[in-house]
Amino acid sequence: MKTSLFKKQALFLTLFLVTLSTSVLAQKQEVIRPGELWPDTDGNHIQAHGGGITKIKNTYYWYGESRAKDLDPQYRYVSCYSSKDLTNWKFNGNVLKMAAPDSLSSKWVLERPKVYFNLKTKKYVMYLHIDVNYKLANMGIAVSDSPTGPFRYVKRFRPLGFESRDIGQFIDDDGTAYIIFEDRPSGGFRIAKLSDDYMDVEKNMSLIKARIEGGAIVNYNGLYYCLGSGLTGWKPNPNKYATATSLEGPWTEFKDIAPVETKTYGSQSSMLIKVVGSKKTTVLFTGDIWKPDTQWDSRYLWMPLEIEEGKLWLPEPTPWKINVKTGETTILK
Ligand code: DGJ
Fold first, then answer.
1. Ligand 1 proximity of 149 Cβ (cutoff 6 Å)
2. Which of 36, 216, 228, 276 could bridge 212 with an S-S bond, Cβ 3.0-4.6 Å?
3. Is 182 in the pocket of ligand 1 (CB under 6 A)?
4. Does any ligand 1 atom lie closer than 6 A to the CB of residue 129?
5. CATH number at residue 287
6. How does pLDDT run across 134-169, given as a tens digit for each residue?
7. Secondary structure (3-state) at 14
8. What average pLDDT does this structure show over 258-271?
9. Which element (helix H / strand E) includes 266?
10. SS3 for 202?
């Protein structure tokens, strides 16, 4: 009798604690904490690695590789999260669930998804890196009528006939859409313009002869800043940047974005996000802190960059806050 009452009390206490911890985690977050677990609004660590951010009206969508533990290994998954403040992210599900296309080996990889919204066709066009043993070097495309999917795989190809590994997304202030891709045999990476309907890569703008992947670009005060990491697989390295007044170059030499010995504070570049607020324009570095043996636990390093007159610097990571309306950030030491 006593035991059963004790059991009931223990069960009640457990349920109470689980509910409490979920509600604590689901509370509105004010602060972005680089390198820490980043709970979504359901309290689960965000699974959007190698990701990209697409802003539609005043909502940000974060697409990325889901590396969650419970996924079916037959498929590759692209997740989608949405947010109005870049801090609290709601999980909208895995918007692409894809089996190996065109009977590729079951060891195929899908990496670094990036989504563009085409104003003319009203389609959401997702670019992917599709590979087998990192030798196939293909780009892939999937489309949807909605930002939250489902996305339908369309094709894979080598853009303009070139090998393509890591991809990066850039939309210029005039709305023109570009893709950055690593082209190893040419000794560097390319910036290329997408076709009008975004269903193809149309025009090479630059071949930057630097061995860089995880390529990202921002146009800040009329100057293009391009950054990326070295080619060290999942291991971090000192990421570097160059600038140019035109996407066609000429590009400056590459310089470090952070103290060399920190290896970009253990992260790898993913995307640069420009937040244009009523008081300030802020540029955010978003990167991945990969954990190759426990991929689901890989973390994110997001920090506002110090950027002005051709100089760019990633400050030492520390918790911070952003007000997306004003563009202002507060660094919490
Ligand atoms: C580095 C790339 O940036 C990642 O996306 C991934 O392809 C790893 N290499 C694989 O080693």
1. no
2. 228
3. no
4. no
5. 2.115.10.20
6. 999 999 999 999 999 999 999 999 999 999 999 999
7. helix
8. 98
9. helix 263-266
10. strand
| Pocket perturbation via mutation, ligand 1, pick of 76, 231, 234, 298 by most ligand atoms within 8 A of CB | 234
CA of 296 to the centre of ligand 1 (A): 15
Is 111 within a domain? Answer: yes
Protein residue closest via CA to atom 10 of ligand 1: 233
64 in Cβ contact with 50 (< 8 Å): yes
Q: Is residue 23 one of the residues assigned to a domain?
A: no
The answer to whether the CB of 141 falls within 8 A of the CB of 155 is yes
In 3-state terms, what secondary structure has residue 26? Answer: coil
Instruction: Report which ligand 1 atom has the smallest distance to the Cα of 50.
Output: 5
> What is the domain range of residue 254?
33-331
Ligand 1 within 6 A of 287 CB? no
Look at the chain and report how many structural domains it folds into. Answer: 1
User: Residue 9 domain-assigned?
Assistant: no
Nearest to 112 by CA among 66, 71, 177: 66
- Asked if 283 and 329 count as a contact pair (C-beta separation under 8 A), the reply is no
Q: What is the pTM of this model?
A: 0.92
